[in-house]
Design brief:
By secondary structure, the protein is an alpha+beta fold. It has one domain (about 5-105): HIT-like (HIT family, subunit A), CATH 3.30.428. The chain is about 25% helix and about 20% strand. It is built from 3 helices and 5 strands. A 5-stranded antiparallel beta sheet has the order 1-2-3-5-4, sandwiched between helices. A hairpin with a 7-residue loop joins β2 (about 25-30) and β3. The longest helix has 17 residues, at about 60-75. It is globular and about 35 Å long. The chain starts with a helix and ends in an 8-residue tail after the last strand. The model has no long low-confidence stretch (mean pLDDT about 95). The structure holds adenosine monophosphate. Adenosine monophosphate binds near residues 30, 32 and 94. Adenosine monophosphate binds near residues 94 and 96.
Length: about 110
C-alpha cells in the first residue's frame, strides 16, 4: 500500500533505522521511543491490524514473535525482561494501521501502565 508509512519503510522508500529484515518481516527503531529499547516489528505485507490476521498469516504472525525474541536476546534484555505490545484500533490506541509488534525494554516498565 503506497500511502502506508510502514509499507514505505519495508520497501525502502521511507527512511528508518532498520535492524532486521527477512522475507516475511521487518524491524526498525520507533521514532518516538518510550523506552531505551523500542523497536517495531512489522509484516512486510500490508495487514491493517490483528483483526485482519487470518489462517494464511500464521507463519508471519509466528515470525513476528520469533524475531522479537531474537532481537531481545541480541540486545541483552531477555533475562531482565521486556514488553511486547500490539495496539488495535481506536480503543487500543493504534495510530498506524499496519500491524506492528512493539518491543520495549532496557528499563523496568512496571510503572508504564
Ligand atoms: P501504535 O500507536 O501502536 O499504532 O504505534 C505506532 C508507532 O509507530 C508509534 O510508537 C510511533 O512513534 C511509530 N512511528 C510512526 N511513524 C514512524 C516512522 N516513520 N518510523 C518509525 N516509527 C514510527
Amino acid at each position: 500500500m503506497t500511502s502506508c508509512i510502514f509499507c514505505q519503510i519495508v520497501a525502502g522508500t521511507a527512511k528508518a533505522e532498520i535492524v532486521y529484515q527477512d522475507e516475511l518481516v521487518t524491524a526498525f527503531r520507533d521514532i518516538h521511543p518510550a523506552a531505551p529499547i523500542h523497536l517495531l516489528i512489522v509484516p512486510n505485507r500490508h495487514i491493517e491490524s490483528v483483526n485482519f490476521v487470518g489462517a494464511e498469516e500464521e507463519a508471519t504472525a509466528g515470525r513476528l514473535f520469533g524475531v522479537a525474541r531474537q532481537l531481545a536476546a541480541e540486545r541483552g534484555i531477555a533475562s531482565d525482561g521486556y514488553r511486547l505490545v500490539v495496539n488495535t484500533n481506536h480503543h487500543g490506541g493504534q495510530t498506524v494501521f499496519h500491524l506492528h509488534l512493539h518491543l520495549l525494554g532496557g528499563r523496568s516498565l512496571r510503572a508504564m501502565g
